[in-house]
Fold this sequence. Notes:
Layout: E1 32-39, E2 47-54, E3 78-79, E4 82-83, E5 88-92, E6 121-122, E7 136-139, E8 162-163, E9 169-174, E10 180-188, E11 201-208, E12 223-230, E13 242-251, E14 253-258, E15 263-264, E16 266-270, E17 282-286, E18 290-293, E19 325-328, E20 354-355, E21 363-381, E22 409-416, E23 431-438, E24 458-464, E25 470-479, E26 489-490, E27 492-498, E28 507-511, E29 516-522, E30 527-534, E31 560-566, E32 574-581, E33 585-590, E34 600-603, E35 611-614, E36 630-633, E37 644-648, E38 652-653, E39 661-670, E40 680-687, E41 693-701, E42 703-704, E43 709-714, E44 723-731, E45 740-750
Antiparallel strand pairs: 1-2, 1-5, 3-4, 6-13, 7-9, 8-15, 9-14, 10-13, 10-16, 11-12, 11-14, 17-23, 18-24, 19-21, 20-26, 21-24, 21-25, 21-27, 22-23, 22-25, 28-29, 29-31, 30-32, 33-45, 34-37, 35-36, 36-45, 37-44, 38-44, 39-42, 39-43, 39-45, 40-41, 40-44
Amino acid sequence: AFDDSFGGTDACGGQCNDRWGAGGIGLGGSPGDYILQYTSDGGGTWTDVATITYDAVGGDIAPGGEFTPWLRHEFEVKENGGPLVAGGLRLILPGAANNVAIDEFEIYGSAVAVAQLSPVEDGGVIDSDNLGVPGVPFAKDTMGGRSVGALNDQTFGDESAWIGSTGDNFVGLNLGALPRTIRSFAFGRDNTGVETDRSLGVFTVQLTDVAEPDETTADGDWVTVGEITYEAGNPQDPHLRHRFNIVEQAATGIRLLTPDGAAIDELEVYAERYTPPPPAAVRINEAPGFTVTWDGNDGDHFDENPPPAGATVPDNLALASNGGVPFGSADSQFVPTHQIANLNDGFYGNSSSHINGPGVSPAFFGIALPGPTALTAIAWGRDNGNGAFDDSFGGTDPCGGQCDDRSVGFYVLQFTDVADPDAQTGDEDWTTIAEFEYTGGLGTDNSPGGLFTEWLRHQYEIGVNGGGALVATGVRIVIPAPHPPNDIAIDEIELYGAGAAPERPRLEVARTPDGKITLTWDSKVGRIYNVRSVQDPFVGNPVTWPIYDGLENLEPTFPENSVSFAFPDDGERFFVVEEFPAPPEAVFTDHLDGGVDDWTMGSEGLAGTAWQHGSPSNVGPVMANSGANCFGTNLDAFYGVDANVWLRSPAIDLSGAAEATLCYQQYKAIENPNPDVFDFAQLAVLDAGSNEVLAVIETNITGFSDDWQKVTKALPAEALGKAVKIEWRLRSDDIENYEGWYIDDVEVTIP
């Protein structure tokens, strides 16, 4: 009873009139807010409907009459004069920790059409918390040659897909006897992207709490939680795996009512909702049959202090110097320098960029290649190298640094195999590889590396499903309409892959006056040769042909090799010359324990530091790495201030070498650099005749080693084909000095 004359069944002695507001637990409560919210996407987002404030003022203790805050109250809820369509309601009680009690939560209205589910993940992979893995698959029926058991084998692909053989089919998973909490599920036709059929139509998602459900479980025991409609292009790739969130339910099984002839690659079930990753600065949508990968590169080859002509572009197949021909829909009519020819001129920067002109929609620009070319990567950017990012150096452009405009938007990458493509090549002759969306702002920073900076150069690996290169005669980038004139700028288009086939090695055949056969071919230092021969050239790979007349493991006689043998008695015979790498051959070795007269030392700094030959003492390593002697910068003392001392090897003949490797032992104790002072060592290769530096192999060598350590360096191309010297140089400032640099056991090998 309201007047507490009848205790009822509760401890309050009648009506419990506490805990109805945000205040304390005592009788009467205190004013408090109830925020009513609804969701239409399974709890992913909640929207406020109203805030209802309960106030003790005016309360009485009987139903009807004045507002009694602890009693039941019904509120009519509408949206714009009509019913509110919702998948769930909730009350938020701000600041009410343990202070509010709810007797019953009632909702009135009428059921609406089955919820239409939209994917929250497109493609993707199976998560490790998939509840469907231990489940038992079942189906109404299965097409011959297929197994419903593959429904949860965690293997994507058509070969492991279930395919129904009749209309009004279904397929599902038995999750056990006890209900499991389900908030999400996923399925697809073929997540490898190979098979795109059997994916369209309406899929109805149903759950049950019947223990151990299977294909015999009655239709009345299943509850529909949503429908999914797959249409061509909606979602963009209906055949891929998609994940869906639903309102939390406890279930022992899930099944999909499928369209006639549908195929299901894999069915997954999850206890947790899927939260899509935050929006990206770049989104890549691959076309079926193609692969595109961005590995995080951002602004590679950027030059903060470029030469006047602009930062240099790396060698690539698109360059005009390599035969690439640029084309586009229209040049800019406002700035004469922003012409199509700048797309492959070999220089980064706004001053050598192309800006699309008006008159053609959609706009496009591209590169025609000299012939069919296997492509593995493409790169482009808006401005990749004209000035500092903080605008402290203006570079050669009017932007005051990097030009960061005209880069956000959509880019559709296409290729063709039509010979000599140009601006007039029809749209039907172009095939889309992928669509790129540069969103702008999300995750963008203003320096190379790190986050995606939309106006810098980015390189993407491209290919076809199953591996392999994409063979094309040209590529183009389309800027879809609508777009205003002059709204996209492209710094440079770069293409990478296999260029023209290498020139075949020379092999000449001649008959000598005495009737013998002579084979002559170009040879290389560091290679070994075999002569092989057969009468039937179709017996196998030439590398398996027998050695002829003992002509095997032939040393090179650079620049060419020649062998002669008696004219064969056979009616016809076929010969090949096999070339393969020789074991590494040492062309220079010195353990520094004998005479070192051919070694030279010198100084271009202050006195007090010199390269010395002998045994270390007092400082540095305990002993030489091998034998008794080594070279060191002052064998018994720290190096001095303002030193600039060098050590040069004897001349090393690399005149016939295609490759060469330097190996030596070092011990170092050289001051680490800081912003104000530094010492450092440098390793370089010199011309043996003029002592001119051909290439710096490594610089800024600093730090400390506890013992001798082996150093191996590939000699650069500038050192090959000539006689060279190796130079070790140590330089110091006037602040801190240490034990220095010690060298032992020097060797150069080929190849």
